[in-house]
Recover the amino acids of this structure.
């Protein structure tokens, strides 16, 4: 039974891998465009296949030591009325972004969305240290997260967010605590705080 | 959706046959004496080891409630209801806004904080615990496991043996097939209802709490904007909820007479909830399920939880829901919270944000200042000071 199921799983993986985007790709140091968000990577990262972390289109998820240990989620240009993650689960009740949200509401939106990401009832998310931050010409915020998960290590997070032209730009670094969060924190803080909208083409 | 755990693989199961019993469910008694240890049947070693491993992870879970008040409160109820069986149980309070309590065949009991939020008296908490203890002493969990095992190929049972044994299943998106597999039979549920009610009455609690708790959960389910096929004590795993509640109500009234006013005291339960309300309700709020939260708040208001706390969460619920008129409703609720003198400082902060949004900078400033005055160590001080300076 077990062998048969593993064989089925393998077959499914093989079929899916035929769709090309299953593998990780290397992100080299330098300026990187994530949709119309521009970030600067000081070192190389591994970009997860599209669709990881319940991603919206244009979302990129990067990791250094593997997704269970650390992940940098960059979500550009979420329009009014849409959630920051995408799911087909009609019962998930993901909170939508609203263009008139104030900093505290963006913090709450992130908190509730992350709770859903880990699985409702499976995680408790607390945010703290909400503070102002400029992202190029756009005013936004930074805040910290502490995520307690039922059967995993604790996670800590740093989030940066701003609203421009009525769209939300959200960057979240979530990593296991202790060790992994601190390991990349300085670099990620610079990357998130240095993010800005890409100059318009033409 | 969940990346913290892999979840369970749903397997379609043969429908489980219900167990025949000669005794009426009202008359059943414990099947096992205190101190009972289940014998391991053939081929079960791996499963029992997994249960022990599971208990280890629960013991180390980051969501385990560490607060002594809550743990002592729950422990004392379990011991009082369990009576001579008290030493057989290890009780874990878990931070989870869902309504659930569960028991393994080895005597590990979990009580979710969402259950504490959804009960109005200690008697109601005792009723749920009595129900779970009755499942244990009637060996239902063990029977359920063995019934399942009989119907399945040996290799697949480990995939969700844990869920069956613990009563705690995979996250929200769990497939219906698995929930069906988790269900106790209707007869087992009735046995646990009746024996549980007798246990709580014998322990000196009000037996009428046994159907009240279910009626409240049914009311919340009806108020929900988004219905869920949720694993839990009174949903998919507990069939025919309304009928069961009605039968239990009838039987309890026949056996102990009608409820007596003042038979139950809310003091102990209220004190526990008032002391931990902010943390417990934050978890509920993060579920983003406003219909349920609103129904819950109405009940909390009626049962006399500190108005400053309840009104604050009314404010939070309206503000985050964001429907037409919700901003005005939120503002009114926050003001009630502040005026009560017992609201958290955050009520001032959130009035400030709402007034900022409405274009009343001076009003916002007043409340932002008050917030920092009442909460000088606020971690969002930099954000609030930014607005105070900007609006100068």
């Amino acid at each position: 039974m077990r062998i048969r199921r593993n064989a089925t799983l393998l077959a499914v993986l093989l079929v899916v891998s035929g769709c090309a985007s299953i593998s990780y790709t290397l992100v080299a140091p330098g300026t990187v465009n994530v949709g119309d968000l521009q970030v600067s990577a000081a070192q190389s990262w591994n970009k997860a296949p599209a669709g990881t972390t319940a991603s919206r289109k244009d979302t990129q998820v990067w990791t250094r030591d593997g997704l269970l240990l650390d992940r940098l989620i960059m979500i550009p240009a979420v329009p009014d009325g849409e959630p920051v993650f995408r799911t087909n689960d009609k019962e998930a009740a993901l909170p939508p972004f609203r263009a008139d949200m104030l900093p505290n509401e963006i913090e709450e939106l992130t908190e509730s969305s992350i709770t859903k990401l880990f699985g409702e009832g499976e995680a408790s998310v607390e945010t703290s240290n909400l503070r102002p931050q400029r992202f190029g010409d756009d005013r936004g915020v930074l805040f910290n997260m502490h995520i307690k998960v039922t059967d995993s290590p604790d996670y800590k997070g740093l989030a940066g967010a701003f609203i421009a032209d009525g769209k939300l730009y959200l960057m979240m670094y979530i990593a296991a605590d202790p060790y992994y969060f601190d390991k990349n924190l300085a670099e990620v803080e610079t990357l998130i705080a240095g993010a800005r909208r890409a100059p318009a083409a033409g | 959706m969940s990346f913290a755990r892999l979840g369970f693989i749903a397997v379609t199961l043969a429908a489980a046959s219900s167990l025949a019993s000669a005794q009426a469910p009202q008359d059943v008694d414990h099947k096992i004496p205190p101190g009972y240890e289940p014998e391991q049947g053939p081929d079960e070693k791996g499963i029992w080891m997994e249960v022990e491993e599971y208990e280890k992870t629960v013991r180390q879970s980051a969501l385990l409630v560490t607060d002594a008040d809550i743990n002592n409160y729950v422990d004392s109820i379990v011991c009082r209801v369990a009576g001579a069986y008290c030493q057989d149980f290890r009780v874990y309070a878990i931070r989870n806004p869902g309504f659930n309590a569960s028991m393994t065949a080895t005597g590990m009991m979990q009580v979710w904080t969402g259950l504490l939020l959804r009960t109005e008296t200690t008697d109601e908490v005792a009723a749920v615990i009595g129900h779970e203890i009755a499942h244990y002493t009637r060996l239902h969990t063990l029977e359920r496991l063995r019934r399942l095992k009989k119907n399945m190929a040996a290799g697949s049972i480990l995939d969700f043996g844990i869920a069956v044994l613990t009563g705690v299943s995979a996250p929200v998106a769990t497939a219906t097939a698995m929930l069906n597999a988790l269900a106790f039979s209707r007869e087992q549920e009735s046995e646990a209802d009746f024996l549980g009610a007798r246990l709580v009455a014998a322990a000196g609690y009000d037996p009428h709490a046994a159907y009240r708790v279910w009626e409240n959960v049914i009311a919340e389910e009806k108020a929900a904007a988004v219905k869920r096929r949720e694993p839990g004590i009174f949903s998919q795993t507990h069939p025919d909820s309304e009928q069961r509640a009605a039968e239990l109500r009838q039987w309890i009234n026949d056996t102990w007479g009608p409820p007596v006013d003042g038979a139950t005291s809310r003091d102990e339960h209220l004190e526990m909830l008032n002391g931990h309300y902010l943390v417990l309700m934050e978890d509920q709020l993060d579920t983003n399920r406003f219909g349920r939260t609103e129904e819950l708040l109405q009940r909390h208001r009626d049962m006399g939880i500190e108005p400053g706390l309840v009104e604050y969460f009314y404010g939070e619920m309206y503000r985050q829901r964001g429907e037409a008129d919700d901003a005005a409703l939120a503002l009114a609720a926050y003001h009630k919270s502040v005026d009560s003198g017992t609201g958290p400082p955050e009520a001032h902060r959130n009035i400030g944000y709402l007034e900022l949004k409405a274009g009343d900078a001076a009003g916002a400033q007043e409340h932002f200042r008050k917030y920092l005055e009442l909460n000088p160590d606020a971690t969002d001080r930099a954000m609030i000071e930014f607005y105070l300076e900007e609006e100068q």
Q: What stands out?
A: The first helix of chain B runs from residue 45 to 60. Chain B has two domains: 3-256, 263-390. Chain B touches chain A through 49 residues (CB under 8 Å).
